[in-house]
Design a protein that fits this description.
Helix 9 crosses helix 11. The chain is globular, with a radius of gyration of 22 Å. A hairpin with a 3-residue loop joins strand 9 and strand 10. By secondary structure, the protein is an alpha/beta fold.
């Protein structure tokens, strides 16, 4: 391969790294052990996986920029070239680190990555991929070689960092339940927390909100469309007809969450059967577009009807729903933030059972314990409240968990 055929990749890499800002990092940045030989970073489209990788390159290789090469597999260069050509050239010319973006676009990517690690064992490789990827697939057998990290959508804590520049500590769930009054007093000192929380629900789950707040809903709709039209076919072997049904299913559910529709009617509307319908629900969940809430008894069974269906996060409600119901927004926020760090199930009483132990009812400022009265280890997560009392905890505080 001639130098000129790959020079463009190096120029693009250097220019892309140069443009990235490093003043604020997502929570996962400092959790990654970048010294590992093979790193996989999964996450939904738009949550900042690429930025995470570029920030590491910029801050680590500023003195030796050509040791690290960043490539995105949506680059047209790969229309008639391969990853194997890239790693061979990079290695032979002194490269030590290769960063690959959007691995799910590459055919038989697991086998290719395995071969690369076999042939170049002292080359550090990191790659990003869709949240839909099944990293435990048999092809390539990477499970014993790589460390897999998942980047979730932004927490409310991170949004406060982006908005105020104030880096607040992550609060563990048990610490939050035991000490929420003192913690809330410290956090709200000098911060109009409810004002920021309202903004977060509308556009704070994705870091790209900073580039265009007014056009955020349209941008998010475009991201969701790309997940279904580009990422889904790249990850799952689906026909165009199935792809269109998945998109239609999402829009139908977006108008009625969190109530679970009569599934038989939904499948009939989509002209599909129960098995295919459940698979489409699972696709949407893996794509971080839906949250499927089930009871503890159901959670171990595949193809089980969920007890409740939610959109993945509040921003999606504003972008996809004809109206964003306040009660549903609250529940969606709670499930999204807590579900990213703990197991959440549908309980017999209340709204959410967390880690098989803690029972929560979510509501507005006037919410009472009537529905979970006398239930041990039960709590209210209440909106429009800066500081709680005893087992009444401000809803916004559940956005401080990561």
């Amino acid at each position: 391969m001639e130098n000129t055929s790959i020079d463009g990749l190096y120029r693009t890499s250097l220019a892309t790294v140069r443009r990235v800002k490093t003043d604020i990092h997502r929570y996962l940045y400092h959790q990654i052990n970048w010294e590992n030989w093979l790193i996989a970073i999964k996450g939904a489209r738009g949550v900042g996986k690429t930025t995470l990788m570029l920030q590491h390159i910029k801050e680590t290789f500023h003195d030796n920029p050509e040791q690290a090469l960043y490539v995105s597999l949506d680059n047209m260069w790969f229309a008639n070239h391969t990853l194997s050509e890239v790693v061979e050239y990079h290695y032979n010319h002194g490269g030590t680190h290769l960063f690959i973006d959007e691995i799910h676009r590459y055919p038989h990517w697991q086998t290719v990555i395995k071969n690369m690690t076999d042939e170049y064992p002292d080359m550090h490789i990191a790659y990003t991929g869709s949240s839909m990827l099944r990293m435990d697939s048999n092809e390539g057998d990477l499970s014993r070689r790589q460390i897999v990290y998942t980047l979730h959508n932004m927490s409310f804590r991170e949004f406060l960092l982006f908005e105020t520049g104030k880096e607040l500590p992550v609060i563990g769930l048990e610490d939050l339940l035991a000490n929420h009054v003192k913690l809330a007093m410290d956090i709200t000192d000098g911060i109009k927390i409810i004002q920021y929380f309202d903004k977060y629900l509308k556009y704070g789950c994705y870091p790209f909100y900073m580039r265009d707040r007014d056009g955020f809903d349209a941008r998010l709709q475009s991201v969701i469309r790309a997940v279904l039209t580009d990422d889904l076919p790249a990850v799952d072997d689906v026909t165009y007809a199935t792809q269109q049904k998945v998109m239609r299913m999402l829009m139908i559910l977006a108008e009625c969450v969190p109530q679970t529709p009569k599934m038989s009617e939904l499948y009939a509307t989509l002209e599909t059967n129960r098995e295919q319908g459940m698979k489409m629900l699972a696709m949407l969940q893996r794509a971080a577009l839906l949250q499927l809430l089930t009871s503890e008894n159901k959670r171990l069974h595949n193809l089980t009807k969920p007890d409740k269906i939610y959109l993945n996060n509040p921003n999606q409600m504003y972008a996809l729903s004809p109206h964003a119901d306040a009660g549903t927004l609250r529940e969606t926020f709670f499930l999204n933030q807590v579900g990213n760090i703990a197991e959440v199930n549908y309980p017999q009483q209340g709204d959410f059972l967390v880690n098989h132990k803690h029972l929560f009812e979510v509501g507005g400022k006037g919410k009472t314990f009537k529905q979970i009265k006398d239930v041990p280890d039960s709590y209210l997560a209440v909106d429009d409240t800066e500081i709680g009392h005893k087992n009444r905890i401000p809803l916004w505080m559940f956005g401080m968990l990561y």
